Amino acid sequence: MLTPVLITDTVQRALAEDAPWGDLTGELAIPADASVRTVLNAREAGVFAGGPLIVEAFRQVDPRIEVTELAAEGTPFQAGDVLARVAGPARGVLTGERIALNFAQRMSGVATLTAQFVAAVAHTHARIADTRKTTPGLRALEKHAVRAGGGSNHRFSLSDAVMIKDNHLAALGAVDAATTTAALAGLRERAGHTTAIVVEVDRVDQIAPVLAARPTGILLDNFSLAELRAGVDLIAGQAVVEASGGVTLDTVAGIAETGVDVISVGLLTHGARALDLGLDAE
């Protein structure tokens, strides 16, 4: 969630990186009383995200800068559309331009890619979710952008839910069906009643012993389409069924059609490119 504190802190860090001792070019080349009017132009189609960061970037540089006609988060746009207007002291606008664009381009890129995945599975009941494969320090921004694109958020951090993966099972000595069920059996009692428990499996024969431990969800990792269908049939609504592993726009529809409930896609964040947006003087 993009809280005011998080937005303020993120922009402060970005400004400290980009203009640690001020904007030398602006201070030497631009008159102090000069003003400018600019528009945030879309140079390609996409889905918008990052508006609150744009506003905060210019506010921190110079509170006199006005950001108006700002597109709402999740707004689809076409090339040539105006997404915002920015006007005020020229030095401030030029100082804040790059980090404002960096936030908007990156977040809109994530939102746009997410929207493409969501559209690809719209004929099914499957939800598209992100992962923890995010840019260090920018997770909240990127997960916000996923929601702007119509996707769902997976757990935000390791603190949010129990998620048992293959290395956890190996550390617990779960080498067969009996030891797997036994290793997982106490989780439900030890976890709070509101805590989700998800267990990852990479073979169909692992599903039954995991299901016996009553998890909230079972993650089918790198299953073929036939294996996904078999997994959905075996679980039969007793747990949320999640698919993951190398999901692309070319494969996601087929995965969704197997009947899984959630498809987690690391590509949404680690594979999204920045959209081409520009701040142009009017």
Automatic annotation (TrEMBL):
SUPFAM superfamilies: Nicotinate/Quinolinate PRTase C-terminal domain-like, Nicotinate/Quinolinate PRTase N-terminal domain-like
Tagged with keyword Glycosyltransferase: yes
Pathway the protein acts in: Cofactor biosynthesis; NAD(+) biosynthesis; nicotinate D-ribonucleotide from quinolinate: step 1/1
UniProt KW keywords: Glycosyltransferase, Pyridine nucleotide biosynthesis, Transferase
UniProt catalytic activity: nicotinate beta-D-ribonucleotide + CO2 + diphosphate = quinolinate + 5-phospho-alpha-D-ribose 1-diphosphate + 2 H(+)
Every Quinolinate phosphoribosyl transferase C-terminal domain range: 110-280
Alphabetized GO MF terms: nicotinate-nucleotide diphosphorylase (carboxylating) activity
Pfam families, A to Z: QRPTase_C, QRPTase_N
The keyword Chloroplast belongs to this UniProt entry's keyword annotation: no
InterPro entries per the UniProt record, alphabetical: Aldolase_TIM (IPR013785), NadC (IPR004393), NadC/ModD (IPR027277), Nicotinate_pribotase-like_C (IPR036068), Quinolinate_PRibosylTase_N_sf (IPR037128), Quinolinate_PRibosylTrfase_C (IPR002638), Quinolinate_PRibosylTrfase_N (IPR022412)
Known EC number: 2.4.2.19
Domain Quinolinate phosphoribosyl transferase N-terminal: 23-108
Primary role: Involved in the catabolism of quinolinic acid (QA).
Family: Belongs to the NadC/ModD family.
Protein name: nicotinate-nucleotide diphosphorylase (carboxylating)
Source organism: Leucobacter chromiireducens subsp. solipictus
